[in-house]
Amino acid sequence: MTQSRCVLTRRDFIRGxxxxxxxxSLLGPKWVEAMGKETPRSRVLIARDxxxxxxxxxxxxxxxxxxxxxxxxxxxxxKNTTDAWLRLVSPQDVIGLVPxxxxxxxxxxxxxxxxxxxxRAGIPRKNIRSAQGRSVDLEPISALISLPGLKAHWLTGIxxxxxxxxxxxxxxxxxxxxxxxxxxxxxxxxxxxxxTRLILVDALHPxxxxxxxxxxxxxxxxxxxxxxxDPVAVDSVCLKILQTKRDLLRGEPWPLSPPPICIEAAxxxxxxxxxxxxxxxxxxxxxxxxxxx
Amino acid sequence: MKGMMGIMAxxxxxxxxxxxxxSAGGSDIMHTDTISLPERIDQWRLAEPPRRxxxxxIFDYMNGAGELYLSYNFHHLTAYTYTDKSDNEILVELYHxxxxxxxxxxxxLDWGGEPVDIGGFPTETxxxxxxxxxxxxxxxxxxxxxxxxxxxxxxLYLRIMAYKETPESKNGILALGRMIAEGRKNPSPxxxxxxxxxxxxxxxQVRADRTAYFYSHLVLNTIFYLSHENILNLNxxxxxxxxxxxxxxxxxxxxxxxxxxxxxxxxxxxLAALTEFTGAYLPDxxxxxxxxxxxxxxxxxxxxxxxxxxxxxxxxxxLVFKCPDPESARRxxxxxxxx
Lengths: 293, 339
Hints:
The complex is a heterodimer. By secondary structure, chain A is α/β, with parallel strands linked by helices. Chain A folds into 2 domains: 37 residues, no CATH class; 245 residues, Rossmann fold, CATH 3.40.50. Chain A contains 9 helices and 9 strands. The longest helix of chain A is centred in the C-terminal third of the chain and has 20 residues. The model of chain A has no long low-confidence stretch (mean pLDDT 92). By secondary structure, chain B is an alpha+beta fold. The radius of gyration of chain B is 22 Å and the shape is elongated. Chain B folds into 2 domains: 180 residues, no CATH class; 143 residues, no CATH class.
């Protein structure tokens, strides 16, 4: 009966009790045991170039390459792209690239750039494959590189990092309703857990409303790539960018609705990373005008 | 002008007015694809045969966006792609919905954009006693913005989009929109809008460009989040209206209050929904008063973001949120007039 179950509502967001309510409703008493577990600080890098997109919205691959190099060396602390990749993956890895296929898809140029960059780092091309979709066999894949497109999502608030693996669940529709809080559990599936070496968000031409279906009124040339190894922290930064853009477009607060409960749940319930900006270090590389964060 | 007349002649040769049957439920529309777009229009050429998407493959076509259209009684979609010599594209999507009110609902989710006239027959009724929609929704049936045309044409919802906006693409989009709407009826907005007649309240004004019509809690949550669970028992047998009411405040931003009006199939289901809502949303505020089917009931409750008010009247439930005081809640609930 309604009165005896824990229902997450608007009032939880206002009171700041989302994490508690989600934890109890998703995990029950086990959540209380996991509460208070500390996570190390997370780093998220944003690289932008005002010329990353041409006036006709074509991709400037030279600019993109420079942005990628800055992110890889920044994330890993290595001096060049090859050493940076080899800090994240090895030539023995079978690497799955996971782009957004439809509705504000990941730019082909970025996928090609990442692939070529990996090959130049010594990864055999035959060891690099597309790993997006329901029918992907994840068993032989030892490393995942997530390449989602930045977009709001009408069902889950944001449809970027945490949602990128939804097809691995085998039942994506299940995660469209109140169970969108459970998106984090997909990252803990045995065939997925621990494999993600890098999240690289295509933020060249994001969508801040009505996603995933594109409405050009809510799309803009952010000209950026966003990278990190903590999926929750990266999604939190993405959320901040979308929210700030929305507020600017309307000239007043225009909160994403529904609020993306998947992010807080991924932090507080599934322990996948940091959603609190107090624990996230954000660094911007390159063009800072319109950074939105 | 010659070119336009040529296009219209071509269109007349290609477009047949669809045979339409209406039942009392408004859901017996024949879903035949009697709209056929031309091979060429100005510099735009049909790139491939049109695609038909229905409920079995809508998620393959548009992922989770498909849930939106399913929530509005989607029947099928016909998609056309036009290209020019530079490979610029125009995507034409004709969403065939079960009824006119479904297509209206889709347009109502966003009244932004430049109103444009794409024709069709004049509005069905000139009955001045028909107040459905007057004052609480814009009169536009087609809106254009940054390369996207969205329109409501009887049971069709149109989305025609150029990936790259140019004057040529805009002309092509509007010409296609006119072709599609040619000869189609323009029914009135849903009857439910008539429960909020123009109020003339001196303090609170309806923000017509924020009025939305829908059936699903998923849509409600995109407008005003209440809960990820369906705590108001919304489904295809219910109709809902979200209205935004504003009050100007000197030296401060306008105060904005959402008014939600829901029509259930019968009073018992309205009562059950109110019970579900108070149990889920107000478990710490829920009064123990006994509610009976058929009785009117109003209550005002303070919560974290202001006063919440609700009013149950027969098969109707009205709720108002974020009110500054109980008097405002009572006043705004009074905007809904239930026969």
